Amino acid sequence: MKAAKLHLRVRAAETIAPSLKSFTLEAADESELPATGPGSHLRLALKNGSHGWRNAYSIAAASPDRREYRIIVRRAAYSRGGSAFLHEAVQPGHLIEAEFPGNLFPMVQIARKHLLVSGGIGITPFLSYLGHLKALGTPFELHHFCRAEEVAIFENLLGEYDSSRIFIHPEATQFDLVETLRTQPLGAHLYVCGPAELMDLIIATARAHGWPASKYHSESFGGVHAGGAPFVAILQRAGVEVRVGEDQTLLEALEAAGLEPSCLCRGGACGECRTEVIEGVPEHRDHYLDANERATNRAIMICVSRAMGDRIVLDL
Ligand code: FES
């Protein structure tokens, strides 16, 4: 799929709770979908007559053959917007345009353990983490907070994962957050996704108990790290110049130009998109290159990083 936009078709829509609906999406032309990694999200451009919404949803699962993405949408209590439209009007066969997947919440590959804390629909990025962690066998611990009446729904959603590491807390339960943070092994990373109050509380508590900023992560849609000043990428081997717009990542611009650079997580974490820099200075935004590699400016992670000036020459 080489277009700047993804053209998706809803393959299946399933109500999993009164307020939760699962959608399975495939490419409208049945081609392979872009690769994604744990924490990737998809921004859908939804249209209902003259109304339009651009909403981002975590990709809860992507099939290994890259034919399907699964998202789970919570209908907001008083929504007349995108979530209500998805719940009420979108059925199998519906065509939806989307941006290429992004990832602002990648898993840190070098973590010795992953401590995941979510609330409500904030579980969705962790569903993709859990699939990955299951395959890798890396230690993890998940604490999920939800309404008492939704415990069974989340137990069901999480049913295929190691239940000895998963703790579902109805809202009213007492939970010793300080003790949980204190007893994590060296090298553990904390990830939080859910309502703002929950994220603020967890992050503030972690900070107050000595967790460095590099070891805690929270999901925040909006693409604040995706854009920046436009620049031109010159692909030396291909003999092609690609303009990278202010709202695009370098990777997206290359894909929009019909190229298929290697990528996986789309969040600067996995190393898959590492590209040699021949000329120019990258603005490093990844979590992969170490300080020495950054200082030499000889490599760039094209999924998140940009050029400092108005041009960069790449070994592509
Ligand atoms: S695709 Fe993973 S670091 Fe760029």
Helix content: 10-25%
Estimated share of beta-strand residues = 25-35%
SSE pattern: EEEEEEHEEHEHEHEHEEEHEEHEEE
Distance from first to last alpha carbon: 20 Å
- Structural class by SSE content: alpha/beta
Which blocks of ≥5 consecutive residues have pLDDT under 50?
Answer: 221-225
Number of helices: 7
- Shape, please? globular
Main beta-sheet annotation: 7 strands, antiparallel
Mean pLDDT: 90
> Biggest sheet: strands side by side, in what order?
4-3-7-1-2-6-5
Small-molecule components bound: FE2/S2 (inorganic) cluster
Gyration radius (Cα, Å) is: 20 Å
Number of strands: 19
Task: Give an account of the 3D structure.
This protein has 316 residues and is an alpha/beta fold. The chain has helices at residues 82-89, 124-136, 151-157, 177-182, 196-208, 250-256, 291-296, and strands spanning 6-17, 20-27, 41-48, 51-58, 61-62, 69-74, 95-98, 113-119, 140-146, 166-170, 188-193, 216-218, 231-235, 240-244, 274-279, 282-283, 299-301, 306-307, 311-314. A hairpin with a 4-residue loop joins strand 13 (231-235) and strand 14 (240-244). The longest helix is centred in the middle third of the chain and has 13 residues, at 124-136. It is globular and about 60 Å long. 38% of the residues are buried. The model is unreliable at 221-225 (pLDDT under 50). FE2/S2 (inorganic) cluster is lined by residues 263-266, 268-273, 286, 288, 301, 303.
